[in-house]
User: Fold these one by one.
Assistant:
Number 1:
Amino acid sequence: MFNYKYIITYVSLLFTFFVHGGEVSITIDDFNFNDQLLSGEERNNEILKTLTKHKIIAAGFVTTKYLSLPNAQNGVEAWSKAGHLIGNHTENHFSYAKTNFNDFSNDVLLADGKLKVFKTFQKFFRFPYLKEGETEEKRDQLRKFLISQGYKNGAVTIDASDWYVNKRMLDKLKVYPDFDKTKFRDFYLKHLWDRTQYYSSLSQKTLGRDVKHTLLLHHNLTTALFLDDLIEMFKSKGWKVIDATEAFNDPIYKLQPKNIPAGESLIWALAKDKGDKTLRYPAEDGEYEKAEMDKLGL
Ligand SMILES: [Zn+2]
C-alpha cells in the first residue's frame, strides 16, 4: 500500500532541492509623475504600500526634471521617509549615446544638486536607456567623472521592457476603457519571469554564479497595479526578494565591462566581454515583445 504522506513529503523535498531560486531587488526608474489612469501621487502610494507590505527596501532612480510636476517632490520625500534608496538618473534623461560628455556630465550634476535634499540619497548613478557611451573615449571620460564625484554605477542586471507593456496597456485603455487589465498583468508577469531566468542563466554561464540582481522597473501604471503580483510570483518560484541596498553590495557592481557600445544589463555586458555569440542588440526592446502582444490582442 502507498503511504501518500511519505510521497507528498518526498515530492516536496525534491521540489525544494531543484527549485532553488535566486535573489532579486526592485529598482524603479524615472519617477515621471504624469497622469496614467492613476495620478503620479496615486501610483506612488500604491507602489510604496506594496513595498511596505513586503518589507522591502527598493531603489528609486529619479530623473529630476519630473520633480517640478505636482506632488513629485513630496512623492520622492515619501520614498526617503520609508527608507528607500534614492539614486541619480540625470536631470533630463538624455541618452549618453546622443549627448556629448560636457552636456551629459552637467546633467548628472544638476540632478545631484536636487537630490541631495533627500535623506536616503546615495551616490548611485543609473544611465538613461542603460547607454554608457558609444566610444571608448566617451565611456572612460564619464567613468572617470563619476568616480571623481564619488558615484557608483547603479547598474541593472535584469533588463526588461515593462515600459513597453505599460505603453501598450495605456494605449488599449484609451480606446477600450473596460479592457481586462489582468490580461496585461499575465503578460507582464510572464515577460519579467522570462527575462529573470534569462539573465540568471547568463550570469551562471558568464560568472559561474548567480548574482544579487537588480530588476529594472519604471514608475508607471504597471508597477502600481502589478508590483504586488510580481513579488508574489518571485516568492512562489522560490526566489528571495531582497533590499536594493543589499543587492548593490554584490561585488559584481564594481566590475567595468569593456564592450563598445558600453551599457545594457551589466551581465549582458560582461558576457559580451567574454565573447558570447548568443547576445542580441539591443539586449531588450519593445520590438521583441510586439509580435506576441499583437497576437494576444494586447
Ligand atoms: Zn530612465
Number 2:
Amino acid sequence: MSHNLNGKVALVTGASRGLGKHISKTLADAGATVIVNYANNYKNAQDTVDFIESDGGKAIAIQGDVRDEESVKKLIKQAEDETQGSIDILVNNATGPQPVISIEKLAWQDYLEQLEFFVKAPLLLTKAVLPGMKEKKNGRIINIGSEVVQLGTPNHSNYVMAKAAQLGLTRSWANELGSFSITVNMINPGFIPVERHEAEDTSEYRSGVPLGRMGVPQDIGNAVLFLASDAGNFITGQSLSVNGGNTLGI
Ligand SMILES: NC(=O)c1ccc[n+]([C@@H]2O[C@H](COP(=O)([O-])OP(=O)(O)OC[C@H]3O[C@@H](n4cnc5c(N)ncnc54)[C@H](OP(=O)(O)O)[C@@H]3O)[C@@H](O)[C@H]2O)c1
C-alpha cells in the first residue's frame, strides 16, 4: 500500500517548530505540498520551509492564528490561491502554553484557553476545508492529541480536559463525514522532547516507557503519514497512542 502523497496539499498548524515541523517534513518527503502554518515566528516557519526544500520538498509558510475565525478564513484562502487547489490533509497540531495549575488556582478562563486550541481551532479549520474535501469526496483530518487523557495527569486538568474534548469531536466527526470518504483520527504522542523541553530531565519518564527510549518527532510524523496516505483508507474515528507503550498498563 502506497504512502505516496504526490499531488496532495497538506496543512499543518503550528509547524514553525516542535512536532509540527517534523510532521510537515515527513508529509513533504512523501510528495505533499505542505502549508507550514505559524502564528508569531516567521523566521522559524521559514526554517521549516528551508528544511523541507533542502530535500526537494514543496512548502509554503502562511501566518494565521488558528483561534480566530477571520484569520483561519484568510489562511485557507491564501493556501488555496498559492497551491491552486484545496486542502486534502489537515493536521490540527498547534498549541499555545499549557500551564500546570492546581484545582484551587484554576479559573474558568484557563479551561477556555485550552479549548480555543484543541476544540475551537479544529472546528474553524475543519469548516474551512470541508467544502473542498466534500467536493473531492476525499480528505484526511488528523488531530494531535496527547497521552495525558489516559494518564489523567494531575494539576493539568485544563489541558487534559481539552484533549479529551478533541477525542470526542474526532469520533463524532468521523461518523458524520464517513460517507464523504473523509477520515478523522487522533494521534496521541507521549512526551516527545522538542525545542521547548531543552532544559528538562527526561530520565524518569524514559524509565517507564516499555520501548525504553524517548520518542522523537519523526515517530509522530510517521504515524501522521500512515493515516494521511492510502494505507489509512479504512481507518477512521480512532485514537492512536504513539508513546512507546507508555500507557500500556492503563
Ligand atoms: N511535544 C510533546 O511532548 C507533546 C506531547 C503530547 C502532545 N503534544 C501535542 O503536540 C502538538 C505540538 O506540540 P509541540 O510540543 O510540538 O508544540 P510547540 O513546540 O510549542 O509548537 C507550537 C506551535 O504552535 C504554534 N502556535 C502557537 N499559537 C498559535 C496560534 N494561535 N495559531 C497558530 N499556531 C500557533 C507555534 O507557532 P509560533 O512559533 O509562530 O508561535 C508553534 O509552531 C500539540 O497539540 C501538543 O499538545 C506534544
Number 3:
Amino acid sequence: MRVHHVVAGHVRPRVGVAAVCHVLVVEHPEGLVLVDAGFGTADLVDPTRLGPVGRLLRPDPDPSTSALAAVLALGRSAEDVRHVVLTHLDFDHAGGLSDFPHAVVHTTAEEWAAATVATHAPERLRYRPIQWATSDDVRRYDGEGDEWRHGLRGHEVLPGITLLPLRGHTRGHAVVAVEGEDGVVVHAGDAAFDASSYGARDPRTGEPLGKAPALRAMELAACRQPWRLRPNHQVLRRLAADPEITVVTAHDDRVLPAAT
Ligand SMILES: [Zn+2]
C-alpha cells in the first residue's frame, strides 16, 4: 500500500511553538484510508468550533492546509476516503471527519468514551463533538487486541492497518501501524511530540534529531496521564530501532518525508 504523508493543519500559538498536524493518506484496496484527520475545513473557516483552547492554538485558516485539500491534490475526491483511523479524538486530530461524513471511523472504545461521556473538565476542552456529528459509522475497539510486534497488541481494523492502544496523551490514545509498500509506517499520534524522544533521525540526512524543548513542554501540558510519557517513548524507541519500521509523530515536522 502506498502511504502519503500530508499536512492537515498548522497551529501557531502565541505562546509556544508552531507545529504541523501530520496525517497519512493510505492507498488501500478498499479505498483511501486516512490515519488521523487534522483540522477540518469547517474548523479553519470558523475556529469557534474548536472552543477556547483551540482558539489559543490559532490554526492557520488557509483551507489548502487540510486533509481534504491533500486528498484533492492527489487527484482524488472526498468520497474516495472510505475509512479514517484515529490515534485519538483531540480537536487537532478529529476535525477533518466533517469533510468525510460517509467514511467509517475507527477508534478505541476507551477514547470514544473519554470523548463522548467526558465528565472530567479538561476533557471537555479537548474534545469537540461537533467535529464528528456527521460521522454515522464509528467502530470502537475494546481491550488490548491481538499480539502484533515488539510486545505490542492491537486490533487489525482493515487488512494491513492495526490500531495499537498506547494510552497516556489521552485515556484511549492509540498508535496506528500501516503495512506500506516500503515497510511499516507507525503513526504515533501524540504519544511523542518531539521525535528525538524516541531517537528519530532526519529522513533527509539520516542524522539523529536534536531535542526540541518547546515541543516537550507542549506535550507535558497536553498529556492526560504524564506518568506514561517516558514508558511510551521507550515503546516508540523500540519500534524506531526496527529497520522495517518508520515511526512518525503528529506534530514534529522534522519527520515529515519530502512530498510523496
Ligand atoms: Zn495533537
Number 4:
Amino acid sequence: MIKFPLTKLLDEQASYEWLLEILHPKGLYCPNGHAIPVGQAPHDRQREPIVKYKCRGCGKVFHIFTGTDLSGSHYTCGQIVLILRGFLQGQTTQHIAEELGLDYGTLLSWRHRIQR
Ligand SMILES: [Zn+2]
C-alpha cells in the first residue's frame, strides 16, 4: 500500500498559524497574561516556526504550546495538526502512528493527555 508523506506535504508555517488560532483565539499571551505587542520579534528561533517570545512585562519565555495540553511536545506543527485531526475523527492511535511514522507508545500517552 502507498504511504502518503502527509507531514511533508503540510506547510509548517501554515500549520503553526492554524494551531495559533485554535489554541490562542485572542492572541498569544505570556503565562502571566501579558499580551505580546504587535511586531515584537521572537526571542528564540531555533525551532521555527515554533518561536519563543520573551515577555517585556515579566521576562517569562514562552511559545505557542506553553501552558496548553501540548506543552512539552516535540512533534512538528504539521504532525500535531494531523494527530489532532486523527483523534477528532476517531482514528486508532495505531493507525495515526503508522501513517505519520511516530512511536505508538508516545502517541498513546499524548492521546490520553489531550483527551483528558
Ligand atoms: Zn508576562
